[in-house]
């Protein structure tokens, strides 16, 4: 198999790609965690050079909600409306009780045709019924016509920082049902450095629906797991979901790709299923890995096993742009690069 052009966007962790009639929309965590940006390209490989537009900026520090640590935005199209979910805190301090940052999930919507030039409206916090650390909301409209939300949140009565929850939505910012816990970190590979399940992403194929997620710390131990359910089952019943016993996508030292995860799904220009994920190409991290900017967005083709489950393979080596370990984000938040391979 020919190597894909990787990475596709530099210094953008938690990458989310949405394919539209006008091309690919891309967003991800901006490394200084102060804004939400969008870029658009006709091709996946053209996203790095695409102009980046800031469509929302954090509130001034000290003004309350949505004023610090803007994480992991995702853009969705829900019943003709653009919707962005993201996590934000009101402080950079760790909650002394929960031992986590103080994030909650928030929602923006846009009714204009173009989400880049359109007006975005703050819909506020998505009330999950639990006032604890919450992040990484993703959404899908199922064949039953209902919108569902899946996200990560902490339950102080369960060991760890976050579990995965699902609910059906009344509208993009309001739950219609009580949250149901789909999964919690309980396997050894989900509890390295941190006890975490986060970053859910939805993939449909045949009569199955898959939810991938990421677990453990944000260094080379970070890896992807997967939940599986029949598409015609009650998705709000955790008994209908099965979790993989082993990670389905992990680091590969032979090609210097470490900590793959927090993924999304789209298709290539010719319609092949593709995995979008972030990864580092080194392990020599100074300080907290969370604040190292060089988690780059990458892609990999998905093949399908005979039983209808996805095969994500292994991370591919870098084929273009080789930013050094010491590269840091410039003031404008955009690292200019030249083709090197």
Short description:
This protein has 341 residues and is mainly beta. It has no helices and 22 strands. It comes from Bifidobacterium felsineum.
CATH topology: Tachylectin-2, Chain A
CATH architecture: 5 Propeller
Overall geometry comes to globular
Strand content: 35-45%
- Low-pLDDT residue intervals, each spanning 5 or more residues: 324-341
Count all strands and give the number: 22
Biggest sheet layout: 5 strands, antiparallel
Number of domains: 1
Please state the structural category. mainly beta
What would the average pLDDT be, to the nearest integer? 93
Q: Please, how many helices?
A: 0
Percentage of residues in helical conformation: under 10%
- Reading off the top of the CATH hierarchy, the class is best stated as Mainly Beta
H/E topology pattern: EEEEEEEEEEEEEEEEEEEEEE
Over all CA atoms, what is the radius of gyration?
A: 19 Å
CATH-assigned homologous superfamily = Glycosyl hydrolase domain, family 43
Distance between the termini: 18 Å
Keywords: Glycosidase, Hydrolase, Signal
Protein name: Alpha-N-arabinofuranosidase
InterPro entries: Alpha-L-arabinofuranosidase, Glyco_hydro_43, Glyco_hydro_beta-prop_sf
GO molecular function, one term: hydrolase activity, hydrolyzing O-glycosyl compounds
């Amino acid at each position: 198999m020919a190597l894909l052009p990787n990475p596709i966007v530099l210094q953008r962790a938690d990458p989310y790609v949405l394919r539209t009639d006008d091309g690919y929309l891309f967003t991800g965590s901006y490394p200084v965690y102060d804004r939400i940006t969008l870029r658009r390209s006709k091709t996946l490989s053209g996203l790095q050079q695409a102009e980046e537009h800031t469509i929302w900026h954090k509130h001034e520090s000290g003004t309350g909600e949505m004023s610090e640590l803007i994480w992991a935005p995702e853009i969705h199209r829900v019943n003709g409306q653009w919707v962005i979910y993201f996590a934000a805190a009101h402080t950079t301090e760790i909650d002394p009780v929960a031992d986590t940052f103080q994030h909650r999930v928030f929602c923006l919507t846009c009714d204009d045709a173009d989400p880049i030039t359109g007006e975005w409206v703050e819909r506020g916090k998505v009330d999950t019924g639990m006032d604890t650390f919450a992040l990484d909301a993703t959404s899908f409209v199922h064949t039953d016509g209902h919108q569902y939300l899946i996200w990560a949140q902490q339950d102080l009565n369960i060991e760890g920082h976050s579990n995965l929850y699902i609910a059906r939505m009344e509208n993009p910012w309001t739950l219609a049902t009580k949250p149901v816990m789909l999964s919690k970190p309980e396997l050894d590979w989900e509890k390295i450095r941190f006890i975490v399940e986060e970053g859910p992403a939805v993939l449909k194929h045949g009569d199955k629906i898959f939810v991938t997620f990421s677990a453990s710390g944000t260094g080379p131990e970070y890896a992807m797991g997967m939940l599986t359910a029949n598409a015609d089952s009650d998705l709000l019943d955790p008994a209908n979901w099965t979790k993989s016993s082993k990670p389905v996508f992990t680091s590969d030292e032979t090609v210097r790709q470490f900590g793959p995860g927090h993924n999304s799904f789209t298709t290539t220009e010719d319609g092949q299923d593709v995995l979008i994920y972030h990864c580092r190409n080194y392990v020599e991290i100074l300080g907290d890995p969370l604040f190292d900017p060089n988690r780059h967005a990458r892609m990999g083709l998905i093949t399908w096993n005979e039983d209808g489950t996805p095969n994500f393979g292994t991370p591919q080596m870098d084929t273009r742009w080789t930013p050094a370990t010491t590269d840091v984000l410039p003031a404008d938040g955009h690292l200019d690069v030249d083709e090197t391979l």
